Amino acid sequence: MEYRQQPSLTPEEQVKLVKIEGVKLRFTHVLGDDRGTIQEVIDVRQDYWTNGFVYLYKGTCRPGKFKGWGVHDFHDDRYMVIDGEMLLVLYDERENSSTKGTVQEFYLSSTGVSQITIPKGVWHLHQNIGLRDLIFLNSPTKPYNHTNPDKRRLPVINDKIPYKLRPTIGW
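Below the sequence we write its predicted structure tokens.
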């Protein structure tokens, strides 16, 4: 099927496309010169960090692999892509949410949208869509509890979440 390519979106336009209640996108500042780059990671003066900074871990995902589905009942996740490209899919199952039943995809990278808040009660899955390991940080709003983890899981392919994985071929 043929279709007309849509215009590219500015970062500000991308932020306006967030459909799921409580999801926040943030573009980090990257400064660079011939020696390399500096990228902002945490600035607690910004609204993105309203819930404070209490815990941080680094995760990786190999090319083409998925992690998820997972959901938290008591904390929000705050992802930041350090290197690579991530497809992040969210599904809002929260009973009192105005966006209950909404599925939304986000494309995150170290050169574009790089930080996102995933509210508690929102299922999430991510895939490395790049050619090298995806490296990301997560700063959840509560520290990880090793004896009683705040996480429920579903298989990548399941009957609960209305999302169909796409083949890896392009147009």
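Residues 92 and 100 are 5 Å apart (CA to CA).
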